[in-house]
């Protein structure tokens, strides 16, 4: 096994470390912190893929839309997106395609038609429409007007940004499948991260809605109890139901994937859904949803990829951070490597153990070169520049890696630049700027050519899904330990559903998912979890 010893915080070539940030060194490397002010005039020529495109982009986010370059097909991601948006209000919609390679995965015509149908429904029933106002009034007075009424699903946040984004995508797919209007309850911490995804409308639940803080409504669990006691048919349908799909390992089965339970939910006008999971595989286990999902996504492992690229466009503020960082530190490189180091038990896992794991993974898989410890200069003609984007709550990992490659040449002669946008030290809740940084880093990771993430981290799942990247999954260390192999290549870029249903609808335990659902596979990073694959042979 490879072993490297790195002293953290020491920058041997004279660069200083102030307050955990990497600052300019004698070799002209720039401060790579999101909190620092980066200057567009410093941006370098771009990489071979997008050098020309990026060079032709305006540097300010406040430019007139008339000078934006148009290429309808590419701009609309092969029909995934609809035209007609005010481009200046969401620059990333236009510019982002210049920062990443075109996806080889095309949305199916059926998916495109379902998205257009959904947009029509949202336009008809969403906030600020006459129908919405009437429906909310009716819901308040518990007057249910039956089939003609628009139905809604309110997504309720829980857990970190990655968890939230994977559950929004799942809820959106559920909304499409059940013809409900998706509304998201964004608190202050999620304000201004994303552009509006639906044309001429908003997906945000208006703050003055009576359901903003609604917790006194009937719950799905109570409904299931009544159903078991056969008392459900004697009662009027609730107008609003709280659906808690937060899963813990020991929860009783929720049977959300079963037709009978979906029948119970079908006519309830307003569902408030809380989940931190990517529950798409459990929708796939429902026979009627399964047919639709199969038609919408002939490539099963592209569900998150398409829906996340459809929904999540960085706001102008987020895009300013992303695009400046990318152009200043990453665009010039021949190859970009995203390295997400999530430490789940920081008190029990020494920095050195994590660093050994990272280097074992990246060097033994030829993602990063070994150090030439015998020479102080490189005699090769290799001029390759690799940029490593480190995303971590802790500054030490970026600092150590950067110092290592500045201190000694690599055996291949490649130059390795290491850039870490932030180091928040801990996960913070209800903090808008903290989330803005997290979103910026998730997006920057998704722009990588090669991605290394930490097992079980939903932060990494969003990056891999957006970028269509099969990541190298670092083993999740929780002690002063070593693990071999240090990482394993994932077989797909779909997120893992950590806690899938454990029972068939008849109550029998599911022993082997693949035998009943051939496109479900156990996750590499969490064997209890499942994810979708395109076919059982891949
Ligand atoms: P998970 O816990 O790894 O599954 O990911 P989540 O995104 O759900 O929750 C972790 C949260 O911690 C993130 O949303 C951020 O708020 C914070 N966080 C964790 N790692 C990073 C990181 O590398 N960079 C930044 N900026 N924040 C992070």
UniProtKB/TrEMBL annotation:
Residues 29-48 are annotated as: Disordered. Residues 32-46 have a biased composition (Polar residues). One of its GO terms (molecular function) is galactoside 2-alpha-L-fucosyltransferase activity. One of its GO terms (cellular component) is Golgi cisterna membrane. InterPro entries: XG_FTase (IPR004938). It is an enzyme of class 2 (transferase). GO terms for biological process: cell wall biogenesis; cell wall organization; xyloglucan biosynthetic process. It is a single-pass type II membrane protein. Transmembrane segments: none annotated. Keywords: Cell wall biogenesis/degradation, Glycoprotein, Glycosyltransferase, Golgi apparatus, Transferase. Its main location: Golgi. Its EC number is 2.4.1.-. It is found in: Golgi apparatus, Golgi stack membrane. May be involved in cell wall biosynthesis. Belongs to the glycosyltransferase 37 family. This is Fucosyltransferase.
């Amino acid at each position: 096994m490879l072993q490297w010893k790195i002293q953290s915080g020491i920058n041997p070539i004279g660069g200083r470390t102030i307050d955990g940030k990497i600052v300019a060194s004698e070799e002209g490397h720039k401060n790579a912190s999101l909190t620092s002010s980066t200057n567009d005039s410093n941006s370098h020529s771009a990489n071979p893929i997008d050098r020309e495109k990026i060079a032709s982009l305006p540097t300010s986010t406040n430019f007139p839309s008339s000078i934006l370059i148009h290429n309808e097909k590419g701009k609309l991601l092969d029909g995934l997106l609809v035209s007609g948006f005010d481009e200046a209000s969401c620059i990333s919609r236009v510019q982002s395609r210049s920062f990443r390679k075109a996806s080889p995965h095309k949305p199916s015509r059926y998916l495109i038609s379902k998205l257009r149908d959904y947009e029509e429904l949202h336009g008809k029933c969403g906030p600020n429409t006459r129908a919405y106002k009437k429906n909310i009034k009716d819901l308040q007075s518990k007057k249910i007007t039956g089939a003609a009424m628009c139905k809604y699903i309110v997504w309720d946040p829980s857990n970190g940004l990655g968890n939230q984004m994977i559950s929004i995508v799942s809820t959106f797919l559920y909304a499409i499948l059940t013809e409900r209007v998706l509304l998201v309850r964004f608190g202050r911490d999620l304000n201004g991260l994303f552009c509006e995804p639906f044309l001429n409308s908003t997906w945000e639940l208006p703050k003055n809605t009576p359901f903003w803080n609604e917790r006194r409504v009937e719950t799905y669990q109570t409904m299931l109890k009544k159903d078991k006691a056969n008392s459900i048919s004697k009662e009027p349908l609730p107008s609003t139901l709280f659906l808690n799909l937060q899963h813990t390992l020991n929860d009783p089965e929720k049977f959300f994937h079963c037709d009978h339970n979906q029948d119970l939910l079908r006519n309830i006008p307003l569902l408030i859904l809380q989940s931190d999971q990517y529950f798409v595989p459990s929708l796939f286990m429902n026979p009627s949803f399964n047919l639709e999902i199969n038609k919408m996504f002939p490539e099963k492992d592209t569900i998150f990829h398409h829906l996340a690229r459809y929904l999540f466009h960085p706001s102008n503020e987020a895009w300013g951070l992303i695009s400046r960082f990318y152009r200043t530190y990453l665009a010039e490189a021949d190859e970009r490597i995203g390295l997400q180091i999530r430490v789940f038990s920081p008190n029990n896992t020494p920095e050195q153990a994590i660093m050994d794991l990272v280097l074992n993974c990246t060097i033994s898989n030829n993602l990063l070169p070994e150090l030439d410890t015998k020479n102080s200069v490189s005699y090769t003609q290799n001029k390759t520049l690799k940029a490593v984007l480190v995303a971590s709550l802790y500054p030490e990992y970026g600092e150590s890696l950067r110092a290592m490659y500045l201190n000694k040449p690599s055996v291949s002669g490649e130059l390795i630049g290491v850039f870490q946008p932030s180091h928040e030290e801990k996960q913070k809740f209800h903090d808008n700027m903290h989330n803005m940084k997290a979103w910026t880093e998730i997006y920057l990771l998704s722009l990588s050519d090669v991605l290394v993430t930490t097992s079980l981290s939903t932060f990494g799942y969003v990056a891999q899904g957006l970028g269509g990247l099969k990541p190298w999954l670092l083993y999740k260390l929780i002690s002063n330990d070593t693990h071999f192999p240090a990482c394993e290549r994932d077989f797909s870029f779909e997120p893992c559903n950590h806690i899938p249903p454990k029972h068939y609808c008849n109550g029998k335990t599911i022993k082997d998912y693949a035998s009943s659902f051939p496109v479900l596979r156990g996750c590499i990073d969490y064997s209890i979890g499942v994810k979708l694959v395109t076919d059982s042979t891949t």
